[in-house]
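Supplementary Methods S3. Complex input for the 4'-deoxy-4'-aminopyridoxal-5'-phosphate-bound model.
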Amino acid sequence: MNLPTPRPDLIELVGYHSPQLDVRVRLNTNESPYAPPDEFVDAWLDALRAAPLHRYPDRGAGDLRRALAARLDQPMERVFCANGSNEVLQTLLLAYGGPGRRALVFEPTYPLHTHIARLTGTEVIVGERTSEYRVSPTEAGILIASERPEIVFLCSPNNPTGTVEPRATVEAVLAAILDHGPGLLIIDEAYGEFADWSALELVADDVPLVVTRTYSKVWSLAALRLGFAVGPPALVAEMEKVVLPYHLSAATQIAGREALRFDADMRDRVGMLVSERTRLAHELALLPDLTVLPSGANFVLVRLDGDAHAIWQRLVDQGVLVRDFSRWPRLEGCLRITVGTPEEDDVLLGALRGVLEPSGIEEER
Ligand code: PMP
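Predicted complex, serialized as structure tokens:
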């Protein structure tokens, strides 16, 4: 074999994999079911036409960061932008993790926290959640005191459980980090706008807290890859040092800035999805052998008493794709359903009824 071997710590690593299938109703990746308004697309393309495409983009993404900061009511120096919140997380781990350093995650949670930590040579420490998938402030405090991790991840609302951590938990974790640090608390709020509170209000120049967010969900712009962090300016300066020059294309920067002018449309979409989440959860809860977990995001996790993988397959056979977590540790029997349009959700509910209700089984035979 003439080919070189990769870094030894990468050999065991499996690439991130989220199965995609060509189906009628796709409720598996927590995207928005609604496209952004046509007026936004026109405004974006007009601005892009006027941009000097033969020049590198603004390295500091000044216009975008200024506009975002104004919308968030934060100083611009606290805002960092990158290609999706995954790149934001990677940048944070490159700057504050790395060989000899450790990151604490509370499982089950977004698998990319562990994956990106490992890619950056950061060791991962695993904390457990309560039976309701919450982070226990007491347990977290004990772990932080004994392990003294450089990074602590909280994901709120948590993917894939939908759990929103209360402010008291975030404050307790922060207090433990301040007592036993130095350490950094990263709160992944990819679904933050769907929840009833945000840790953004706790961000300050001298607090070791950074909140990450994305345009992929509420802004309906998953295809464009834009995410951002809000944290102390000193932290943002370190992230700017680490990230590759000109990493954020002019097309992405302009889209992020123009999207903000359609804030009202975004809020309407969030409102529709939140009320549709309530309806979907209510309808799901009426089904036999199924438990719906409370969610503050644009998806709901359900636990099935039967063979959840077989049920997932039967949904696929009917053209409905949800995310199968049933074989993941701590998520036995669980499927995650992204909130779609009412029409898509009705197709899902009809298919599930057919699978779970005895009369449905008779009909299928
Ligand atoms: N954080 C969480 C919790 C997510 O679920 C996702 C997307 N699935 C991301 C971050 C990454 O989003 P993006 O890179 O598209 O901004």
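Residues 48 and 251 are 6 Å apart (CA to CA). The first strand starts at residue 25 and ends at 27.
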